[in-house]
Amino acid sequence: MSVLENWDNWKNFLGDRLNYAQEKGMSDETITDLATEIGGYLANEVDSKNHQEKVLADLWSVASEDEQRAIANMMVKLVENNSTH
After folding, report:
1. Which residues, in sequence order, are CB contacts of 73 under 8 Å at separation 6+?
2. What 3-state DSSP class applies to 47?
3. Band of the pLDDT at 1, cuts 50, 70, 90?
4. Helices (H), the chain
5. What whole-number distance in Å separates Cα of residue 42 and Cα of residue 36?
6. Is 4 helix (H, G, I), strand (E, B) or coil?
7. Domain of life here (predicted)?
8. How far apart are alpha carbons 40 and 36 in whole angstroms?
9. What b/e string do you get for 49-78 counting C-beta neighbours within 10 Å, with b at 16 or more?
């Protein structure tokens, strides 16, 4: 099963990667930049595997660049607050 097929698994996966980046000293701005790039890639190149991902992709498709950055930042906060570590 792909990590993208289950919303909780996806959040845990992102949370683990976020913790790793923070442990390696990556700045919050750099993390948000990367999250924005990944969000764009996922929205444009990967089919949504669950309802939550579909909502995010739909929001991403109508958002300005600033709004996309805000969505990415909110995802970082979400996984940071729900992190398994």
Report:
1. 32, 35
2. coil
3. low
4. 7-23, 28-45, 51-62, 65-81
5. 10
6. helix
7. Bacteria
8. 6
9. beeebeebbeebeebeeeebbebbbebbee
DSSP 34: H
Place of tokens 């919050």: 28
Q: Exposed, middle or buried by CB within 10 Å (0-12, 13-18, 19+), for 1?
A: exposed
pLDDT in tens, 3-55: 777 788 888 888 888 999 999 999 999 999 999 999 898 888 888 888 888 99
All domains of the chain, ordered by start, with CATH? 3-81 (1.10.760.20)
